[in-house]
Design brief:
This protein is mostly beta strands and 298 residues long. The chain has 3 helices and 16 strands. Strand 15 and strand 16 form a beta hairpin. The longest helix has 10 residues.
Length: 298
């Protein structure tokens, strides 16, 4: 059975989702201003009927379990770009006071306030308040995670730009091979891009965290950096950061060359829309390498 609070019925058995979210999202939705009653002066609050001063009822334009519709309006919307995240918008009526943080400094007399609940059917369930010019419908929201992926897609991340070993190079069994890559925004990073939608902007920064080299002879070499360029002064020394020594020639391999594959792992940090996270992208580059034996001249 509902209680009467400020002229609206308040269902104790099913508290409004919006009322709970209001309290959770703002920390404590108790606005103590000169124009508002104090908790100990309000009989409804003192009686335990309401935990938010004067504003606890009437903001939840929620659909009750019996199929009835509370005051206000709702709409469901997906994203036309193909997002799996579906959002529901509930208009807050009556409007909260101008001092309420959900307005984000915007004027209530010129704007409407909506509560947004989104879900992708799994663990991605963003929610929050959005402010919309008065009389206009809320713009379908895009999850920050999806905006982060859009930003990454715009970067055109590529596989390693292999500087060594070179396809035209001649390499020798038992002689240390130094592997390294050229560094650019699209092949190594850092690479930064932004994506925006529905008033939310996400910034993503990508950089290669490691490169794994499959050498074609069954060996795998993991390098945490771009490698060190070889200098003639190093002689027969092994690379201090990324290298390999072949123990047999490539004569038995296809086209008498080893197929070398360099696989880079792009680690991406993103933030925006009140959220932050990480993404991972994988890219590859191949090169064929001929490895022979040292010829002794007598």
């Amino acid at each position: 059975m509902g209680d009467e609070v400020d002229g609206h019925e308040f269902d104790r058995s099913r508290p409004s989702l919006l009322t709970r979210r209001l309290a959770a999202l703002t920390g404590a939705l108790v606005l103590v201003t000169a124009g508002m009653a104090q908790a100990d002066d309000d009989p409804d609050v003192a009686a335990g009927k309401c935990q938010v001063i004067k504003f606890c009822v009437g903001v939840g334009d929620d659909t009750d379990g019996s199929g009835g519709q509370a005051r206000g309006s709702q709409s469901d919307s997906g994203d036309s770009s193909g997002s799996q995240v579906k959002c529901r918008y509930t208009k807050i009526a009556p409007k909260p006071p101008a001092e309420h943080p959900a307005w984000k400094g915007k004027a209530p007399e010129k704007n409407d306030l909506y509560f947004m609940e989104c879900s992708d059917g799994g663990d991605n369930n963003p929610d929050g308040f959005i402010v919309v010019p008065e009389g206009q419908p809320p713009v379908p929201q895009v999850a920050p995670q999806e905006l982060a992926q859009r930003a990454v897609d715009s970067m055109t991340l590529l596989g390693p730009d292999i500087a060594s070993p070179r396809a035209a190079g001649k390499y020798t069994v038992g002689v240390p091979m130094w592997m390294w890559v050229n560094q650019s925004a699209t092949t190594y990073g850092p690479n930064t891009a932004r994506a925006s939608a529905g008033g939310v902007t996400v910034t993503a920064t990508a950089k290669v965290s490691k490169i794994v080299w499959q050498m074609g002879d069954g060996a795998s070499v993991a390098c945490n950096g771009p490698g060190t360029p070889y200098q003639a002064s190093e002689g027969m020394a092994e690379s201090p950061t990324c290298g390999h020594v072949y123990s047999k020639t490539s004569a038995g391999a296809q086209d008498a060359k080893y197929q070398v594959t360099a696989t880079s792992t792009w680690s991406i940090d993103w933030q925006g829309g009140g959220q932050a996270g990480q993404l991972t992208e994988i890219r590859q580059t191949n090169v064929q390498v001929a490895v022979g034996e040292l010829q002794v001249v007598r």
